């Protein structure tokens, strides 16, 4: 329904790192709402894999090869996309990595790599698209945050620092550019079943569930891991006119984890 406040007809969305996982699910949701989809990956092989995946669900997506930490490549890609496809109306900063290493065993280089991709990448991407959004009268930026934007846990110091920073970058972009009708919000997924969390869900040698798998199910009121499709509605909401007065907010899509002390043993 083009006149729906949730419609993305006529809008172009760039979702970073959206060949699979959460990024792909969000891009599919935005496409289903009418958006033209652009995505990136770090290799042509990955882009080709993504194009095939989108085609398989009827989406004629546009794929570009660039690393979100490479400012020159990002600036060139945003310019190319604007000319070859359309100016970017919606940016979803999804690309991200995690390293699960006890902090005292993590090298500074490993820490910097996580922060560079998960925090500096969204800065570089947002800086690249905001000037044209201002010229065009507005835009939407959605940063994919995390439970680790609010909580810590063992072995994820770099990731938590980056995602905590991403929450504040979200608030600062909202503060600095809200006057130009740019809304910058976050989505904070809970524990979602994707390749990134596969190690936390692997079956044990005896066939039992991974202890972390059991922990998350006990810690989640919904008593399940999230599916990437659970993020579809929140993403469409934050990309659409329906959220034009929502700014600097992180929408947690976590099945209730942040509200819950956890099931008693
Ligand atoms: P994923 O399965 O590991 O996918 C991450 C994607 O980002 C991959 O396509 C990856 O491409 C891409 N990427 C990584 N570094 C990149 C870079 N420098 N430039 C461009 N693309 C890059 O992760 P996911 O579970 O879908 O998570 C997506 C986002 O949600 C991440 O920001 C993650 O932190 C966040 N998140 C995940 C969960 C969860 O439970 N899964 C929960 C909360 C937040 P390659 O294939 O080339 O590596
Ligand atoms: C971990 C997980 C989490 C999820 C997500 C939770 O090792 O704890 O990977 O960090 O990826 O960020 O919201």
UniProtKB/TrEMBL annotation:
It comes from the Bacteria. InterPro entries: NAD(P)-bd_dom_sf, Sc_DH/Rdtase_CS, SDR_fam. The keyword Transmembrane helix does not apply. Transmembrane segments: none annotated. One of its GO terms (molecular function) is oxidoreductase activity. Keywords: Oxidoreductase. It holds the Pfam family adh_short_C2. The keyword Cell wall biogenesis/degradation does not apply. Belongs to the short-chain dehydrogenases/reductases (SDR) family. This is Gluconate 5-dehydrogenase. It comes from Actinomyces succiniciruminis.
